[in-house]
Amino acid sequence: MRPASPDDLMRAFVECAAHAPNERTRSVLTSLAAHLHAFVVETKLTHVELTTGLDMLCRAGSISTGERDEFALLSDMLAVTALVDMLNTPPYATSSSALGPFFQRNVPAFRNGGDLWRGQVGEPLVISGRIVDGCSRKGVADARIQVWQNADNGLYAAQDSSQPPLNYHGSLDCSEDGDFAFTTTRFRPYTVPGDGPVGEMLRALGRQAWRPAHLHLVAQAPRYRPLVTEFYSHDDPYLDSDAAFGVRDDLVVRLQLVQGPPEVGVPLEAASRLPPRFWHGELQIRLAPDNE
Ligand SMILES: [Fe+2]
User: Fold this and answer.
1) How far apart are CA 15 and CA 125, in angstroms?
2) Residue 125, pLDDT above cutoff 70
């Protein structure tokens, strides 16, 4: 067809995609085009604005590297990642979050009750918790967690040559009841990168770039969906203004200053080195069966 109107253009797009080999791909891309067309019509987008947007995407590609993904950041800052997380979390499971740019595939395993703190600068923190079935709330056997966070200076190991590689990264096997514990330090708020096109977008919108302090965690167990999430400290000043829109009520953990021997159900390797007062946070992680 020879399109003569905005509606014709959309009809032409749908027509030419009619024989796409994969139905889901056809459906998603046709819907994307329809929403983009509606956006252009609604905003009466000008040539200059279109060129500016395309230039931003082009520069997002140029600034991206193996370690930096400006498109993932764009998705986070547009609240698209959070929306996908929200729509794909079953109601009885722990909310999921973005994997983020500092996830590492091959991290050292440490024993349940082990130590990521290793006496480094920061406020010592004991994290304990249990992996449970989201429906029955019973402990899950053969669960494994991977955790990572930033150091007291707000930087992840990959951003900071003064830290050992994979500092504050590790994975551990939980007990048969799904219990786990480890020592670390309090994680810190940080800002997302502002030196690329996404930073320009944040400034153009008058937005701040802070993310509340969080502990990244991936939980896996046989016959359950893997969970990628983040836990936030209850007293963080950015809980209600997270640049990545990632905070959910069930991900906010009350960190409490406690005294004396920690009673967390799992012997702590660093128990004797903890100061008289230290922080403690208790997590409950609800997994969804993988057949749903
Ligand atoms: Fe993070």
Assistant:
1) 59
2) yes
